[in-house]
């Protein structure tokens, strides 16, 4: 049984189909890439899965239970964590307080604030933010804000993490470190869906990739398969290139 | 207005509490040493200390700019009055009933209004207060527009002690809240409601909690106020002036801090009384100018100036604040 199954998910904004009859199934333990040009519906699909937006049609099942249209907090407590494309820190709270929030509100939540802060410190150790735990989140740099997003998601102890461009704006060296971190998270049994523009990340992490374009799923398969599929090349580079090689893979 | 302090364990809190404990000890013996005039002034300061601290729970910690606080003050005043006059309950029994009723009203209204954000919430809460005022003016049980007389107390000093007790309760609420699980939820909601939701927080119940606590304390102040004045009418308790002063005092002292609102109430009410005695004209000019200056130069209140980092004087903090104001084109 797949951990997450989205069936026929459609989200209309007026007459525009941001997501159009998309079927996606994620197996437990996988790292799946979700790629597509800007405006292809990746973030909207994540919003529907996490309950931030109700789908116009279709159904989302998590671990066999129908979670379509449930509230974001309930879905989070069931075990789906997400990060935002633009980091959403609690700016005037300290870094460790930021991470203590999910520890206090996950399904098996900490008994009290003191314990939650201790647990938060362990997570901050994992992502390499321990030294900055007492800074207000507003004082963090962009790479550190991405680490904080990740730390908050980890601290929720999810079964599935949806990572919306956690690598954006990172240097190649920082990207490598983050990829190592994501592999470690996955090795602990957390299923990952990685939304990413940087193809090197997708190629390096994912065995399976789903490609969206104009809200529809246009390809699915191994990174090699999808990057050589004519429909994908046309989506990224325009139809003229569809006969040639795949998109640039760095 | 909604850029408050996070819940933060600071050494400053311990020092603050030492000062507060000393102030409380002094406050307990003061009525024996002061004449009636000053006891009355202090009772008024405590009243506004309660209101500012109460507003801080919803406006400061939660970031919802409530402008309907007087609605709960009025509920507290009228419930206390009605129970004393018509049911002949003693004051200590009537007062908590008013507080509980106000908290329940806040929970019911909050379930609707706390879905609104920013200005919409502010206007809706103000509207709620005005509706209650009209209702009170037209009901028979409240005495309508002609008001209601409460039985007089034997000793005026009891109001001083009741207000002081209310103030202690309000400060304790402001101290305890940010240190609890609910306080973390409230802070996260204030900072970023979407991010809070995807981390497992259902926002509405926590917002209602803060709103009901705010209402409970407003009603406590209102009930004591009614017994103190022995006469209430719709316009005197469902009075926007209470709300606005509470908001200004909380913002002045430092919203989202434990002691800021109380300091704001003490400083502004003392200035208010002093300047009124000197000249009513000067009082109006100074008061307005002072509020303007603070909003521009220390938008996070006095607390901002007193949280200067070590090695940096308060004067330097003020100058930095002015520089920031200039850079952000607020001047």
Overview of this protein structure:
- The complex is a heterodimer of chains A (250) and B (331).
- Helices cover 37% and strands 24% of the residues of chain A.
- With 250 residues, chain A is α/β, with parallel strands linked by helices.
- The model of chain A is unreliable at 244-250 (pLDDT under 50).
- With 331 residues, chain B is mainly alpha-helical.
- Chain B has a two-stranded antiparallel sheet.
- In chain B, α3 packs across α9 (203-229) and α12 runs antiparallel to α13 (280-297).
- Chain B is globular.
- Mean pLDDT of chain B is 87; it is low at 1-10.
- The chains are: A alpha/beta (250), B mainly alpha (331).
- Chain A binds chain B through residues 50, 52, 71-74, 76-77, 81-82, 84, 88-94, 97, 100-102, 104-107, 109, 112-113, 116, 136, 152, 156, and chain B through 3-8, 179-181, 183-185, 187-188, 191-192, 194-203.
Features:
heterodimer; A: 250 residues; alpha/beta; Rossmann fold; 2 domains; four-stranded antiparallel sheet; 9 helices; 10 strands; 37% helix; disordered C terminus; B: 331 residues; mainly alpha; two-stranded antiparallel ribbon; 15 helices; globular
């Amino acid at each position: 049984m797949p951990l997450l199954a989205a069936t026929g998910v459609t989200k209309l904004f007026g007459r525009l189909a941001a997501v159009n009859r998309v079927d996606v199934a994620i197996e437990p333990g996988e790292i799946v890439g979700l790629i597509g040009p800007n405006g292809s519906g990746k973030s909207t699909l994540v919003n529907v899965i996490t309950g931030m937006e109700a789908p116009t049609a279709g159904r989302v099942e998590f671990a066999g239970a129908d979670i379509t249209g449930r509230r974001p907090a309930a879905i989070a407590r069931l075990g789906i964590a997400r990060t935002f494309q633009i980091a959403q820190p609690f700016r005037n709270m300290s870094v460790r307080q930021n991470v203590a929030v999910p520890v206090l509100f996950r399904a098996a939540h900490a008994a009290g604030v003191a314990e939650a802060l201790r647990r938060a410190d362990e997570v901050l150790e994992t992502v390499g933010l321990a030294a900055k735990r007492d800074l207000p989140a507003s004082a963090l740099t962009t790479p550190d804000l991405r680490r904080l997003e990740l730390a908050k998601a980890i601290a929720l102890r999810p079964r599935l993490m949806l990572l919306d461009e956690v690598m954006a704006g990172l240097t190649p060296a920082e990207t490598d470190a983050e990829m190592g971190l994501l592999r470690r998270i996955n090795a602990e049994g957390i299923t990952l869906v990685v939304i990413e523009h940087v193809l090197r990340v997708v190629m390096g992490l994912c065995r399976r990739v789903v490609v969206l374009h104009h809200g529809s799923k246009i390809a699915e398969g191994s990174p090699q398969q999808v990057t050589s599929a004519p429909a994908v090349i046309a989506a990224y580079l325009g139809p003229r290139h569809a006969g040639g090689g795949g998109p640039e893979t760095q | 207005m909604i850029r408050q302090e996070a819940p933060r364990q600071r050494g400053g809190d311990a020092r603050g509490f030492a000062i507060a404990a000393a102030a409380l000890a002094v406050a307990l013996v003061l009525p024996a040493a002061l004449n009636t005039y000053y006891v009355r002034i202090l009772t008024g300061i405590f009243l506004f200390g309660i209101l500012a601290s109460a507003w801080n729970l919803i406006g400061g910690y939660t970031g919802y700019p409530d402008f309907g606080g007087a609605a709960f003050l009025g509920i507290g005043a009228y419930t206390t009055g009605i129970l004393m006059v018509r049911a002949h309950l003693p004051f200590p029994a009537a007062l908590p009933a008013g507080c509980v009723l106000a908290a329940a009203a806040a929970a019911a209204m909050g379930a609707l209004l706390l879905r609104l954000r920013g200005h919409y919430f502010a206007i809706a809460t103000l509207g709620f207060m005005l509706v209650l005022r009209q209702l009170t003016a037209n009901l028979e049980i409240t005495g309508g527009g002609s008001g209601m007389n409460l039985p007089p107390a034997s000793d005026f000093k009891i109001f001083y002690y009741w207000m002081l007790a209310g103030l202690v309760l309000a400060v304790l609420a402001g101290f305890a809240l940010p240190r609890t699980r609910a306080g973390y939820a409230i802070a996260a909601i204030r900072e970023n409601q979407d991010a809070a939701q995807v981390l497992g927080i259902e926002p509405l119940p926590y917002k209602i909690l803060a709103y009901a606590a705010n209402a409970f304390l407003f009603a406590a102040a209102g009930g004591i106020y009614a017994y103190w004045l022995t006469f209430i009418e719709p316009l005197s308790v469902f009075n926007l002036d209470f709300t606005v002063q509470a908001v200004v005092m909380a913002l002045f002292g430092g919203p989202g801090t434990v002691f800021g609102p109380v300091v704001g109430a003490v400083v502004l009410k003392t200035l208010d009384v002093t300047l009124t005695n000197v000249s009513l004209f000067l009082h109006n000019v100074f008061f307005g100018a002072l509020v303007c200056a603070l909003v521009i130069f220390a938008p996070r209140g006095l607390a901002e100036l007193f949280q200067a980092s070590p090695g940096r004087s308060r004067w330097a903090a003020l100058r930095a604040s002015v520089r920031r104001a200039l850079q952000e084109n607020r001047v």
